[in-house]
């Protein structure tokens, strides 16, 4: 029986007992009804408590069982019924709060696209997304979600990428722009070429990760169990002294009635689910509450270099036209022809071209591509070739490149027109990310990379990382992680590629940069960053710290309120029935406080400041 049905059942039985006593004047029958129901629920709670004890944990259910038993023993059966209503109502309230906190995750799952409009000749054929193949042409109609990852080849429009990046502003797209599955088209039809199957596309990968996070309950969910022993002892001491001093057993029951275990049981799971919800709105999927707990107290962070500290993909770093050809002219020609290609160099060129405010996408005819060599197309009657030195068949100079650089030569009508140089680049947000991690309490930051020492140390120096482990094999990274002493843990490992998957799995918390696939790394990781932004690592740590602070505050608030009520109840001024009703106040206070974990610390401070100004 789920919590809501149990709650409704207790309410129904309570209503029947009320009618029996006050409608038919049969208090003994009403007492029997409530006693039987109370005994059954207390027994079921006792069985659950025994299971908890066998697992090596101590729970707070003992107080609930004792309060029900004590009120029944002294004849306060209406108070016992009220306790049952509050306990089952508290469980239902927990479900509601968890569902509210997890609504962002649920929306992600509910909005998954299922159909793609694929061009077959002059017709559009609706195709299930798991049957869509790479290089097929798809049309995204106005208001529809992009079914799989692809590149725009025709049309311009604005796309809502909030489900993927958390940003509410519309993103303009034009030929050559990348489209992520799950993003929403604006008010114009767009034609795209498919670049990834559904299984490898971004949205489907995220849906799978979110489903994993929903199916992984937090190991830390009943955080309050660590407070259970002292709280139970305090409750029994106050109740026992009240009985001894007053010589009235009712006083024992009245104290235990307000020793509500509900806030202790509810506060932590609600806060943790709220924290996971907040992280999803920040383009971070955290798979379990355990990961939140560990990130909140992380002392060490290890970073891979390529794809993590650096962008991990080629970018145009120099455009060198020959005399008589401007940079804008060269980019217009090579950018227009490369839009037709899916090659890694073509993607880099098109990204660069689309970033130029005066880029003109020209019509290309007679396009052809030689795999691994280059592309050729005719633009305004001119034959444009781009690719390797030998491919363009022009008298081009051999350009000397630095380590890690690549080059594409360009020729127009058989004459050398210039070249473009490519290299991986440092993420601009990386230096600030390292600073933020250190300021949040991470004591040791290091780089683990397979690159040569000189290249690794150069990048590390730019971002403020002092410890560098270069020329690492996957096993070397695992060994370094495993041998990290306990005083330097919990340990975070951040990576993006398949070769990082073992290290992510070995770390206390593995964080994968999952914006461009890397499914093996994402599946091995405990958290996945959906946006191509390494600063989200620091954001994940900050959210985890905020969440744990809220969870602990919620539990402690519940404990202090309960102790205060117990001290008052020990004087005999709180009747058992009224004390049982006060439980709901404690429950509601704890849950509302725990839901604060859904909001950012900055928003909470801003709201507080606004209230001060208004006052």
Low-confidence stretches: 214-222, 602-615
Strand order of the largest sheet: 10-22-21-20-11-18-19
Estimate the helix proportion, in percent: 40-55%
Report Rg: 32 Å
Largest sheet: 7 strands, mixed
Number of helices: 22
State the assembly state of the protein chains.
single chain
* Content-based structural category: alpha+beta
Tally of strands? 22
Cα end-to-end separation: 48 Å
Name the shape in a single word.
Answer: elongated
Rounded mean pLDDT is 80
Strand content: 15-25%
List the helices and strands and how they pair.
Elements: H1 3-23, H2 27-54, H3 61-73, H4 77-101, H5 103-110, E1 115-120, E2 123-128, E3 137-140, E4 150-154, E5 157-160, H6 162-165, E6 170-173, E7 178-179, E8 184-185, E9 190-194, H7 202-215, H8 225-246, H9 249-258, H10 262-281, E10 284-286, H11 289-296, E11 300-303, H12 305-309, E12 315-321, H13 327-338, H14 344-355, E13 365-370, E14 374-379, E15 382-387, E16 406-412, E17 415-423, H15 430-439, E18 444-448, H16 453-463, E19 467-469, H17 474-482, E20 491-495, H18 501-506, E21 509-513, H19 519-524, E22 527-529, H20 535-569, H21 576-594, H22 601-614
Helix pairs in contact: 1-2, 1-4, 2-3, 2-4, 3-4, 3-9, 4-10, 4-21, 8-9, 8-20, 9-20, 9-21, 10-20, 10-21, 11-20, 13-14, 15-20, 20-21
